[in-house]
Amino acid sequence: MSNPAQAGFTLNNAVVDTPPRPSSTVLLLRDGHDGKSGLEVLMQRRHEHNDVLANAYVFPGGKVDKADGDIEMMSRLDLPAATIHARMADNDLDERGAAVYFAAACREIFEEAGLLLAVRGDGSPVDAQDAERAMQWLRQGLSFAEVLERFDLTMQASALVPWTRWITPRMPMVMSKRFDVRFFLARTPTGQTAIHDNHEAVESVWLAPRAALARYQAREMMLAAPQLMSLIELARHASVDAAMHADAVHWPRLIEPHPFEHEGNRAVAYPGDPLHAIAERVMPGPTRLVFRDGRFEPFGDFSERLLD
Predict the structure, then answer these.
(1) Shortest CA distance to 282 belongs to which of 170, 212, 216, 183?
(2) CA 231, 234, 238, 239 torsion: positive or negative?
(3) Cβ neighbours of residue 260 closer than 8 Å, sequence gap 6 or more
(4) Which of 3, 154, 207, 256 is least enclosed, having the fewest CB within 10 Å?
(5) CB-based contact 194:283 (threshold 8 Å)
(6) Residue 278: which H helix or E strand, with range?
């Protein structure tokens, strides 16, 4: 295909025995500017040379770095670790471990999308000029913690809503690595503009979830299963407030996909499916996807199954 964003994934057949890598992903939301399209989410197309999800549209995020847990980063969060731990509601993490995911989320959306989810030392909001100056320092070699210190900024952990937790199975469908990813929701900072680095990401686009699903159905974009399922859920909300309020009252949901074979194709089941160990649904949409022709599809009619 002439457009790499329309290409399909290559199915992975190797078992990965290394532990899943801790990661944070943020669904940055805004209400549509025309007042009619409802909420929109920021998606970025990954560079074709990336070793993970090349050419796919993803939400900003990445691996947790060791430095995310340093005292300099922990001291720049606007919530104490105990409060963050309570919001994560995850018995697999201690207080510091939970706070590290929040710090990584704030760092990643700045590094990948140029958005500072932070306030100044006096509590006033960060504007576009602040974000641009901070990005210049980052590109000159300062660490994110050093950028925060230089501009006396506090990360807004309070603005992040823990949403879902995805753990890659031992035989990943379309990757050769495993990840333990915490997905967060966040309202896009007012007055700032999302960018991409032209290195890991080559395109940034704001899309209404249903518009993104329509593009996927038309084979105009590549989506991995977690992104596809997240868009299906977001499509049920008419506004940012509705999405964040609905999910703020639920504990973050654990999703461990279960791969299986179906009529010669690899498929994956989610909680609530008869083939999954967990009988209770934890998210709307189809409970299983089949990998066919380089992409994930629900069983049955595509349009009906995606938004049923």
Answers:
(1) 183
(2) negative
(3) 266, 267, 268, 269, 275
(4) 3
(5) no
(6) none
Separation between Cα atoms, residue 123 and residue 219, nearest integer Å: 45
Residue 27 · residue 206 · CB < 8 Å? no
Which domains does the chain show, CATH number per domain?
19-208 (3.90.79.10)
Contact between residue 205 and residue 198 where contact means Cβ atoms under 8 Å apart = no
Q: Which residues of the chain have pLDDT under 50?
A: 1
CA dist 168 → 171, 180, 226, 227, 259 (Å): 8, 7, 10, 13, 10
User: For tokens 């990954």, what's the residue?
Assistant: 46
Q: What pLDDT score does 251 carry? A: 74
Buried b / exposed e over 146-184, threshold 16 CB at 10 Å, is ebbeebebbbbbbbbbbbbbbebeeebbbbeebbbbbbb
Point out which residues pair with 191 in neighbouring strands: none
Cite the beta strand spans of the chain per DSSP E.
21-31, 39-46, 57-58, 61-63, 118-120, 153-155, 161-167, 179-187, 201-207, 253-255, 258-262, 265-269, 288-292, 295-298
Three-state DSSP class for residue 61:
strand
Take residue 27 and report the two structure tokens written for it.
């669904």
b/e sequence 205-230, b meaning 16+ C-beta within 10 Å:
bbbbbbbbbebbeebebbbbbbbbbb
Q: In sequence order, what are the beta bridge partners of 269?
A: 258, 288
Element (H, E) at 76: none
